Amino acid sequence: MDFPIWVLFFFSILIGDVLPATAQNDFWGKYCGLTGNYTKGSPYQQDLDDVLYSFTGTNNGFGFYDSTSGQANAAALCRGDIGPDACRRCVDDATRQLRKVCPNQLEAIGWYDLCFLRYSNREIEKEIDVSVSGRRRDNVSDSSYDQWNQTVANLLGRLRREVASGDQLRKYASGNITAPGLSTIYGFMQCTPGLSSTECDGCLVGIIRDIRRFDRSLGLGFHRLSCSIRYETYSFFNSTWYPAPPPSGERYDAPPPSGEWLPAPPSSGKCGYMAPEYAMEGLFSTKSDVYGFGVLLLEIVSGQRNNQFRYEDQPESLLSTAYKLWKDNEGEQLIDDRLTLNVPIGEALRWINIALLCVQEDPQDRPTMSTVVFMLEGDQWSANLPMPSEPQLSFARFVAEFEQTTTSGDSNTRPLMDRSRSLTSSC
Ligand SMILES: *[C@@H]1O[C@H](CO)[C@@H](O)[C@H](O)[C@H]1NC(C)=O
Ligand SMILES: *[C@@H]1O[C@H](CO)[C@@H](O)[C@H](O)[C@H]1NC(C)=O
Ligand SMILES: *[C@@H]1O[C@H](CO)[C@@H](O)[C@H](O)[C@H]1NC(C)=O
Ligand SMILES: *[C@@H]1O[C@H](CO)[C@@H](O)[C@H](O)[C@H]1NC(C)=O
Ligand SMILES: *[C@@H]1O[C@H](CO)[C@@H](O)[C@H](O)[C@H]1NC(C)=O
């Protein structure tokens, strides 16, 4: 940790007492809120004790913690490259330290190199205009400036696109760039995973604008509440992520050249499940595979085929039945009796949750396949899986009609009342 040689500077529209760290083990930056104090023994203190006591159990599996108890809300985020143990240590430290340095404030924020923690009596999603940042004292030489400026801009542009395309569990990217006459530049960017890609991008663009006036510094870090950027001329992050980053080709925002690896259209009668975006627009990506995997997983859990699914002896839609039961805490009604002999109920319920995340309408809301594998592998982080929203059946009619037209002339064209069941089934 090399912050002593940094010049720290702070922006705070709320003129809070954000102060630079002084001693080792202190926060890099902290903010003790000005909206009010609580008194010893008050209900708020009880809520805050409760929320922080159980906090380390709320990791979403990728270093994001989020919890509420009564009036007290808390959230923490670890840098995307650090593993679960280092992350837990950092958040534990931050929890203890922040209560110490902001002893009675309703709201407090502390930033370490590897994690940051915030608690508040207001909604934790509310962005407040507090940030902590620092830059290296040494500057790039005048003769290298143009090259430097362009190279940094290229790196930041690349990372920005990558972060914003992350999933609901992790929005993080790191990388390096080289240019003639310059040392290699290393950087990372991160957003709170719950942000949409537009919100994440907006937050990062704000930082990029703010740091422009320090574009001669050979290193720079800037942390807001929902996003961070840092770059250096030495490697300061672990380029082996935890877990391994998805293989290339995972990006869904760059459709492959048509004809190259588009799957055969459903009319060919091949087995598989169509993601809505493929049925609607012919857009195919590995996120469409994730969708198909989700449907398959629900079939395994329920022991029934998607296109012949029955619930309480009635023909129903597998996806919406699974969602309804899961949402009403009755997910075990879906589970095939044969499965319960071998798999604990809690595990099967996790599978339903994961499957429902895979069949989200918007590909951006679906996890990547490597995230799915990680989530299935289990609970070494006692992971709180994100809540899926209801699978959209608005596509059902389209798919059904699509099937009808492509099978026109076929004597067993499905009746329209059957459409929700025929959703995404292509065989
Ligand atoms: C809150 O407590 C701090 C001391 O911890 C004090 O400096 C500050 O003035 C108090 N703020 C209010 C609004 O009472
Ligand atoms: C680097 O540039 C800043 C202005 O951008 C200046 O204030 C600072 O003194 C420079 N540092 C050195 C070591 O020259
Ligand atoms: C540095 O690069 C940015 C982004 O490419 C550009 O907008 C800006 O004008 C450059 N600054 C200078 C002083 O050349
Ligand atoms: C720089 O990034 C590339 C991938 O873009 C990676 O293969 C390489 O190992 C990185 N170099 C260092 C020194 O980290
Ligand atoms: C980097 O991450 C990998 C994978 O999680 C881990 O095995 C390794 O120990 C880490 N290296 C450092 C220096 O933290």
Number of domains: 3
End-to-end distance:
58 Å
Strand arrangement within the widest β-sheet reads 1-8-11-12-10-9
Q: Strand count, sense and closure of the main sheet?
A: 6 strands, antiparallel
User: In the CATH hierarchy, what is the class of the largest domain?
Assistant: Mainly Alpha
Plain-language structure description:
About 35% of the residues lie in helices and about 15% in strands. By secondary structure, it is an alpha+beta fold. The chain folds into three domains: about 5-130, Gnk2 domain, C-X8-C-X2-C motif (Killer Toxin P4, Chain A), CATH 3.30.430; about 140-230, Killer Toxin P4, Chain A, CATH 3.30.430; about 265-420, Transferase(Phosphotransferase), domain 1. The protein has a six-stranded antiparallel sheet, covered by helices on one side. A six-stranded antiparallel sheet has the order 2-3-6-7-5-4, with helices on one face. A two-stranded antiparallel sheet has the order 13-14. A hairpin with a 3-residue loop joins strand 6 and strand 7 (about 115-120). The chain starts with 5 loop residues before the first strand and ends in a 5-residue tail after the last helix. Mean pLDDT is about 75; it is low at about 1-25, about 250-270 and about 395-425. The structure holds 2-acetamido-2-deoxy-beta-D-glucopyranose (5 copies). One 2-acetamido-2-deoxy-beta-D-glucopyranose binds next to loops.
